[in-house]
Amino acid sequence: MGFLFENALVDVGALAACLLAMVYIYFKRSTSYWKERKVPYIEPTFPFGNFRDQIFIRKPIGYVFADLYKKLDGENYGGTYMFTKPQFIFRDPEIIKNILVKDFTSFHDRGFFIDEEIEPLTGHLVLLPGERWRNLRVKLTPTFTSSKIKMMFQGLVDCGHELGSILEETARREEIIEIKDILARYSTDVISSCAFGIQCNCLENPDAEFRQWGRKIFESSIRSSVIETLNAIFPFSISLLKLNVFDPKVSKYFRSMVQDTVNYREKNNIKRNDFLQLLIKIKNEGKVDEEHDYLQENDHGKFEKTSGLSMNSLAAQAFVFFLGGFETSSNTMTFCLYELSLHQDIQECLREEIDTVLKKHEGKITYEAIQEMEHLDKVVAETLRKYPPVQILNRECTKAYKIPDTDIVLEKGIRTVIPVLALHHDPKYYPDPERFDPERFSEEEKAKRHHYVYLPFGEGPRICIGMRFGLMQSKVGIVSLLSKYQFNVSMKTPVPLVFDRKLFTLSPLGGLWLQIKERVT
Predict the structure, then answer these.
(1) What pLDDT score does 292 carry?
(2) pLDDT score for 360
């Protein structure tokens, strides 16, 4: 009996070894794709290709690609492999300009597989492909003009005043506070007010319902990472397995909340100066204003007036406004205060500008006052350089593309990446890149650099549509704090920073602790 068992083990072992050998041979043959096309590439390792650190979530995604970027030093581009699937990295800013602008028609999709039947909230502007993206972008672009942001500006200011007020006691006692959570609550109040017309008062009540549901979105980040990896390798497996990026309860809450709010406004003829009201107008009329009466091409090649939004599409746009405005803005303000705490001279210089400009505006934070703060603009720009909210830009090759002045042709379906964080930290463009220096963004210094080595919001037709609103939200928050308080590093402040590896956006692990004091006048 024992003899038979041992033989069975030997047979199983031999079979496993044979299968492993076959898989290895398949891997070696499949990963000759770039070599056969005479494209510079990074040698993959079995079985993960070049993305072991991403698959095991060992580093933030931006730093994974920064490592690959460095390995391709001296090249304008290069090939990589996710397991055996070929991917492509662009390094040269002139080629990046072509990809994002000049040759956009070959790279208009992000390459994420979405299925709105499984998850309606994925049908938003950031993920939609092709014509559906273009038609929706046309409808939504007028919602983020300067006039529309001015319309919502008082909501930002009101939240900024609340932010300054809740910290008075802690500043008086010179306490050490976890600033990221406070700024996340400020961002949640801004988004709930300006996007949904809801006063959730998260600054006063950290456990407010809207804040709790917002947390649940980002708590599912490991699940999202697994699904993103599957999406990169086997995109249709998501639909086949009916995988949902979000907790179904979170999705149901947001869709119900939006629908209930829309129904209530329409039933009671209530109109507000917020993003949701603009979406309601698009839903019902297909446009925001009379001057934005766009035409779109139908399936028969004829042009007709744009149709409105479905309720699910409306909810998806409101949802992505929440995602974009909440996480990116709160992190940008957090990183900004961190750097200002490390560099007291820069903090004081910025505070002096804030005082001077606000004095001209009778002590009030106005839209015009924020626009006048040139040093603030440079400080925020440098923060976004060092800590870009979107660490990489994904693009899928939507039709065969010949890279200019080369014999290399990227086939349709090839996934490509522009490594934003790596570009922002390349000493060739930003000498001593780890140093925080707002003067990198003086007009003189900007003129010396290629425009496409600074991409915190992307660029071209798919540039972040809410960029100006996000910047305004961050600047109002910073001004509201620095006009009243001084920030310093403390014993609990991590130097250097440690980042959360699970999140797609760059975020400090475990929050960020700073000391707050009343400013000395």
Answers:
(1) 46
(2) 96
The count of structural domains within the chain is 1
Contacts (Cβ under 8 Å, ≥6 apart) of 43: none
How much is the pLDDT for 104?
Answer: 96
- The number of CA neighbours under 13 Å toward the Cβ of 186 is 33
Whole domain around residue 163: which residue ranges? 53-518
pLDDT at 9: 53
Long-range pairs, 405-414, Cβ under 8 A, ≥24: 407/38, 408/37, 408/38, 408/39, 408/77, 410/88, 414/86, 414/87, 414/88
β-pairing verdict for 485-488 and 85-90: unpaired
DSSP string covering 283-336, please? HHHSSSSGGG--EEE-TTS-EEEPP---HHHHHHHHHHHHHIIIIIHHHHHHHH
Q: How far apart are CA 187 and CA 159, in angstroms?
A: 9
Whole-angstrom distance, CA of residue 175 vs CA of residue 7: 70
Which pLDDT value is given to residue 13?
Answer: 64
End-to-end distance of the chain based on CA atoms, in angstroms?
90
Closest CA to 505 of 251, 249, 225: 225
144-199 pLDDT, tens digit per residue, is 888 888 888 998 999 999 999 999 999 999 999 999 999 999 999 998 888 777 88
Gap between the Cα atoms of 276 and 187, Å rounded: 17
Tell me the DSSP string of 496-521.
Answer: S--B-TT-SB--BTT--EEEEEEPP-
Residue 131 confidence (pLDDT)? 87
Spell out, as residue ranges, where the chain has pLDDT lower than 50. 292-304
Please report the pLDDT score of residue 361 as a whole number. Answer: 96
Tell the residue number behind the tokens 């001015």, with chain if given: 150
Which of left, alpha, beta for 409 (phi over 0: left; psi -120 to 50: alpha)?
A: beta
Of how many residues is the chain composed?
A: 521
Q: Assess if residue 38 is contained within a domain.
A: no
Q: Establish if 43 belongs to a structural domain.
A: no
The answer to whether residue 86 is domain-embedded is yes
Distance, CA of 473 to CA of 407 (rounded, Å): 46
CATH code at 109? 1.10.630.10
State pLDDT tens for residues 92-123: 999 999 999 999 999 999 988 777 887 888 88
Helix (H) / strand (E) containing 367: helix 367-372
Q: In the prediction, which pLDDT does 10 show?
A: 54
Among candidate residues 448, 27, 396, the one with its CA nearest the CA of residue 235 = 396
Report yes or no on 10 lying in a domain: no
Helix (H) or strand (E) holding 467: helix 467-482
